[in-house]
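Q: What would this complex look like in 3D?
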Amino acid sequence: MSNEREMSPLARKAEEFLHIFRKGEEFTQELLKENERLRYRLVQLDEEQRAGRQEEDLQIQTLRERVGLLEEEKERLLQRHREVEEENKLFASRYLEVEEENNKLANLYVASYQLHSTLDINEVLRTVLEIIINLVGAERFAIYLLDEKTNDLAPVATEGVEAGDLPTVRVGEGILGDVARSGESCYAPEPQGVRTLDPQQPLVCIPLKIKEHVIGVIAVYTLFEQKQRFTNVDEEIFSMLAGHAATAIFASRLYGQSERKLMTIQGFLDLLKQQPEERA
Amino acid sequence: MTTNGPTFLIVEDSPTMRQLIAFALRRIRGAKIVEASDGVDALRKLSGQRFDLLLVDINMPIMDGLKLLSLVRSDPQYRQTPIVIVTTEGAEEDRKKGMTLGANAYLTKPIQTAELLKVVQDLLSQKTT
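A: Here is my prediction, written as structure tokens for the whole assembly.
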């Protein structure tokens, strides 16, 4: 006490300063500790962040790889889809082709069935006319048969034109005669829209032949208004007619001849049977 | 097994054409087909049986297709029955005449099977809806 009282103002100030300094020192010490702690925490956080970033990077990398795989899968699926679409188009077009072929075969079947369904020459010729009208769409045409004795082609059945208006043609003369001689079909180069009839200039002339033996020809002069040109199907019908119509015509003619001969023989036999009775 | 398919009447003088049309129509499930060779034959068959659709040619002996068409349309029983004309007559005035008399469709020969089937199936589906 006495010391305090004895202390000079300077010494008191020094004591106060010292006291403040000590407080400051303590505070600085605390600050340093806090700083140390914070730096340590910062290092910890840095490490944690680094570890987190690495994990994130890993996850991002994994996700990127997954996205890449999915992209590839998507591309593969799109490619497959395009392929399937192409296949579908191909199948649809193939289906149409098969349908068309089926229809064509059905028509050819019906036509050949009808041709061979009779042994009457007139019915056979009518069937040939019907096939050419209904399946080909021909308006004016004629069937010529070959007379092997005279070597002439004569019209025996016609449509849209009178047989009397058509000439008899010698084998080897004109288009019809050439077709009969060669056995090869002849198509006019540009038949579209032809409406006039020239007996020597058919749009198409096809031989009726049994193997290589020509028995006649079919000459088409004009087509219906709605039929502009011949198609591949028409060529197949003509090709079918060339063989089947020839066979049907030939068979029916032979049958007719044999029928007539049979009737003559039968008549003769009847006559022979009657004569003894009459004599008696 | 029986199916209740449509019944067709084909009126056509050409046996070949009747066969061709019948062959095409048989592709419709359960289709029943009756054939008539001219208009009079068709009228006889129409009086004895009910048909879902008629296919009629124009040029026929005894009674042609247009006469048949007008007679059929005057009968209340057949006023709504679809009729398809199948003919060689391709001129526009013939088409107009056929449609005016009551045909539902007009097809010219040579017919395309696919087209015929489409027309027939469209008319049958319109009839049922």
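A: To summarize the key features: Chain A touches chain B at residues 99-100, 103, 106-107, 109-111, 113-114, 127, 130-131, 133-137, 139, 224-227 (CB under 8 Å). Chain A has two domains: 24-115, 120-258.
Q: Very helpful, thank you.
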